[in-house]
Amino acid sequence: MDEKEIISIMLVDDHDMVRLGLRTAIEASDSLEVVAEAKNGTLAYDLYRENKPDVVLMDLLMPELNGIEAAKLILEYDPNAKILALTSYEKDELVKSAVQVGIKGYILKSIRMKALEAAIHDVYQGNLVYGQAATQSLIRIQQLKNKQEELNLTPSELGVLELVATGMSNKEIANKLFISTSTVKKHVSNILGKLDAKNRAEATAIAIEHKLFENT
């Protein structure tokens, strides 16, 4: 294969054995090559600037600077950077953060090498690549957004409601959100009205029933 067709890869993972395994698998391909490795997000940013890899394979949970934060820095430096998240976790909040920051793909480490190679090529070509688990997370996130919009809660009201559900008093919520107690009372009153709830406990029950919180 012509040298220009080889895709350069930077591996970012805090586990040495994971990087070794990925390097071994990737270098068995005649279309991919590893040009840099980083064990944390800070080093990943520096090495990206030095090596300008075609695709970054990025773990998301790392010390010093996590993958989301590192991706944000890299994309601020180079908006055209192609970053593919390779992680063991499929939490909705991670998928949501990855999408928001501009990561081009999200796949699990359990993926087979042929599928990983295909994902790398897709991301390199400018396509978005989200595995089944990540796609399901995006669907859940959209469903949650639709439910929140259906009930007409503002982001501020939703934030207050989530704290109400933990059992916090108005004063505790005010201190937590750095707002006045009167503002909290107004939000709570609006929440009860919009949810047609008689009290805070009923509002919490309705929120849980409708899965208004990302962790419910």
Assembly status: single chain
Envelope shape: elongated
* Counted beta strands: 6
**Distance linking N and C termini:** 50 Å
- Class of secondary structure makeup: alpha/beta
Level of helix content?
A: 40-55%
Give me the number of helical elements: 10
As residue ranges, the low-confidence spans are none
Largest beta sheet: strand ordering: 2-1-3-4-5-6
How is the main sheet built? 6 strands, parallel
Mean pLDDT across all amino acids: 85
Rg calc: 22 Å
Percent strand equals: 5-15%
Secondary-structure element pattern, one letter each: EHEHEHEHEHEHHHHH
Structure notes:
The chain is α/β, with parallel strands linked by helices. The chain has 10 helices and 6 strands. A 6-stranded parallel β-sheet has the order 2-1-3-4-5-6, sandwiched between helices. Helix 4 links the parallel strand 4 and strand 5 (105-108). The longest helix has 19 residues, at 132-150. The protein is elongated, with a radius of gyration of 22 Å. The mean pLDDT is 85.
Using brief descriptors, characterize the structure shown.
alpha/beta, six-stranded parallel beta sheet, 6 strands
Question: What secondary-structure arrangement, pairings included, does this model have?
Answer:
Elements: E1 7-12, H1 16-26, E2 32-38, H2 41-51, E3 55-58, H3 67-77, E4 83-87, H4 92-101, E5 105-108, H5 113-124, E6 129-130, H6 132-150, H7 155-164, H8 170-177, H9 181-195, H10 200-209
Parallel strand pairs: 1-2, 1-3, 3-4, 4-5, 5-6
